[in-house]
Amino acid sequence: MSVSDSPPSSICMFALHHQSSSSQDSGLYGQHMVFPKTPDGRSMEQMMGFVPYSSCVTPSSSEREDFSQFVLPPPASTLHPSGQKRRPSKDSVEYRQRRERNNIAVRKSRDKARRRVQMTQQRALQLQDENQRLQLHIQHLSHEVDSLRHYLSQRHLQAREQDTAGEDVC
């Protein structure tokens, strides 16, 4: 099957707008372009498989495609008259089962939330304890640094005194 023999719906990726009686088209900047005809009388657009836009938009009845899967459902307000939802009566078994399932779900949800809050509080206490322990460790290390600085400065002074005393003897 050649491109020109294929149905228009398969070639409608790009369609040129052209005048039906002449083979001239308005080109870039309003210049007229002349498309030569092929020996069998077809225009270059037809030979390349381009079809008029109108044939892409309105396919024949045999080529119509089903687009129902892309159509949005009607709004909910058109399905049920407002305020008249289908609800089981409060005396029915279905209603009682739904309520029981809902009550169980609510209990589970609330228990889960309580556990989550409890775990968060527990983690906060652990972090506070760790922070306090680390603060004490920092204090201990700061005192150690201070005592080592003092010790080193004392040794430095003693070494200087010995050097000055040794120079006086010579």
Question: What does this entry show, briefly?
Answer:
The protein is mainly alpha-helical and 170 residues long. Helix content is 55%, strand content 4%. The chain has a domain at 1-59.
Topology summary:
Layout: H1 8-11, E1 24-26, E2 32-34, H2 44-47, H3 53-57, H4 76-79, H5 93-169
Antiparallel strand pairs: 1-2
Report on this structure:
It is a single chain. The protein is mostly helical. The chain has a domain at 1-59. The chain is 55% helix and 4% strand. The chain contains 5 helices and 2 strands; from the N terminus they run αββαααα. It has a two-stranded antiparallel sheet. Strand 1 and strand 2 form a beta hairpin. It is flat and about 125 Å long. The N and C termini lie far apart (117 Å). Residues 8-25 have low confidence and may be disordered.
